[in-house]
Predict the structure.
Amino acid sequence: MRLTRVTLFFIVLILGLGFFRLIDYLLQDLEFQTLQATEESMVDTANILAGYVETEGSLAGLSEIFDNSYNRDIEALIFKQLKTNVGLNAYLTDDKGIILFDSGDPKNIGEDFSRFRDIRLTLAGKYGARSSRTDENDKNSSVMFVGAPVHKDGNIVGCLSVYKAQADVLPFVQERRRDIIFATIFIGSGIIILIGAVFIWLFRPIGQLTDYARSITRGERRSKPAVGLGREANTLANALHAMRESLEDRTHSDKYIQTLTHELKSPLAAIQGAAELMDEDMPAADRAHFLENICNQTARCERMIHRLLELSSLEAQTHLEHSHGFDIVALCKKSIGQMTALAEANDVTIKPDLPKRLPYKGNELLLGSALNHLLENAIHFSPKKGKVLLHLENHETEIILTVQDQGEGIPEFAAERAFERFFSYRPDDETKGNGLGLAFVREIANLHLGRVNIFTPEQGGTCAFIALPLIPENR
């Protein structure tokens, strides 16, 4: 998934740079556009006032207009900014640029303003406007000026300029700047989150399917992963699962045909040899012996085929089926009852060491079969008057079920192969086992996500155990 993370990183980086450039452009252009809009309204105001002067021709009337405006109570909420006073002023010059009237600073009356751009260009019949700072060291001290010509008899006889401090406009610019930054960050974050969600939605199932395919390669038993509702991911998951089942079926078929053929050779050869000898004249006792041998070998073949079918059925399961809650202590007592007759026949005693009660959730029938196999093996390997110990212990994370006999123990090489199919270690017993019992136990433990082991402890004998994990619902 490294490529996914790298791809997502570059997408986020490109989007981040793009949104940064967008914010930078919008913020740089915001103040300029706001001032443009303000200048446009000032042009209208200047021309209206110039028209008033042309009509009335009275400085007193112009002064009265501004005095009345400044005395008005204003409470205008404009884009979250409260305006409480008139921020617009005006001055009037003659055709030489000499100040005749100034609503903002009467001390300027009589001053020559012809050098300023708004006056000079307006008196020349052009559009005159300027922006000047009252404090050269303070960029926020700029004042905007817009001039309009005053006509008389078709000639320009003066200039009326309106002026407004940019500081009156800056709060609106700052508010809009905050809105733009917030909106851009919000939209950008939403897009990044959406892209991340899409990547997770697409690539998380791919990661799960990759792990699933690797588990198939390792020969692990895993159920088909839940990959969500995506049609493509589910199609791929179903295809992988179907491929796995097909491969496993073919592999199992080939493997079991080969192993079954190999293992049936010995009993079939014994049956054939005994049958051929029975065609000859022999004492009745010998004939009975050969007939018994045929029956024993036939039973052996039957047990082997039956056990192989059980083992094949277990290995075909990808997850534990028919799981329910039960008392594992009661299961142990039930297995002891089932094995008591075999133990008495071999002059062996089963000694349990069990808690009063231990609830567990799993397949009770399979775990009972696994325990029976371990007890049966322990009984067969125990000496006369020996004891088979059955111990159940509850740890924090798992339940450990241990079966220990007092036999000669199992060699290390045999312990390493004990759970392989058809491996049987019975050095002093003429009746060879089918080598499927412990393989059967291992498959049952695997289905319960547990583990099995067999070894010779320091005190001697053979110890086999099944460790079953305690998932939250079993704790």
The CA atoms of residues 340 and 350 lie 7 Å apart. The chain has three domains: 2-174, 223-319, 324-474. The chain has a mean pLDDT of 79. The first helix runs from residue 2 to 56.
